[in-house]
Amino acid sequence: MKFIYSCLALLFVSSSFAYEVIDDHGQILQFKEPPKRIVSMLPSITESVCILGRCAQLIGVDRYSNWPKSITNLPKLGGGLDPNIEAIISLNPDLVLVGSSPRASERMKSLGIPVFSLDSKSYADVRRTIEKLALILGVPKRDAQKIWDDIDLGVEKASKLLPPGVAKAKVYFEVNRAPYAAGPNSFIGETLGRLGLVNIMPASLGPFPKISPEFVVSLNPDVIMVGDRNYIGMNDRPGWAQLDAIKNGNVCVFKESDADVIIRPGPRMAEGAMAIVDCLSSKKFLRQTH
Fold first, then answer.
1. What is the pLDDT of residue 285?
2. Would the CATH topology of 2-139 be identical to that of 162-289?
3. Phi-psi region of 27 (alpha: psi -120 to 50; beta: other; left: phi over 0)
4. How much is the mean pLDDT over the chain?
5. Which candidate, 156, 187, 148, places its Cα nearest to that of 277?
6. β-strands 198-199, 180-181: how paired?
7. Which residues in the chain belong to E strands, given as ranges?
8. Which residues of the chain have pLDDT under 70?
9. By the 8 A CB rule, do 209 and 180 touch?
10. CATH topology (fold) of 2-139
11. What's this model's pTM, rounded to 2 decimal places?
């Protein structure tokens, strides 16, 4: 989809150094030069900035950003939904990168803080985010393209490693215990699809629908995938003890570090795909599946 980058490139204005980029809320931000003091308020954005080679420009991050290790000592500035505005202002950033929370964004904008919103729910969104960040940060187009190509190739390689006996298994992926699920049109759902798995969630519900526990019971997945932080109490939900996935022990409970990789729409999506394959490839899982 080279046209995406080409369209974004047309946003550059005619002055020798000034350019402008449109964020995912339709706001136009103008830059005289690539920003040097950046705050990132979303882990996937932090990771994308770093994979583009601009970790050194980060002066603060959200409380959940923990990769790469070089950013772990940066000031933690709250979360995407509850940013520490005073702490952000004290750092005097020339750009704050945020997710899809309009309330937090508007509060910062009202105080004169330059804010750029990026909302990644699908593979296409992730690619667009990397391309927009590359434009903002002054990273060559070819570098952004290579990053995306590496992600895409990595997921494709992971798909070839899934054991044949697990292909077409019906999967329920729980994003958090509300419960929110990963739908087929989310980046997680797209990964499951590329691996040859079947997402039990109807696409019509959206990328990350809030559902009832009873709905999952009615769909009776072969496999459940969940991070260890959200797994506690899952088996005690009404009717869940009778789910095939739980009766057969076919539950992938990802440790925190793996769950972080899987649920973040950024440069480590291929690693997330491999974490899923690793679970499904375990001897215990295969024995119970067959």
1. 65
2. yes
3. beta
4. 91
5. 156
6. unpaired
7. 19-22, 28-31, 38-40, 58-61, 95-98, 115-117, 170-176, 180-181, 198-199, 223-227, 251-254
8. 1-17, 283-290
9. yes
10. Rossmann fold (3.40.50)
11. 0.91
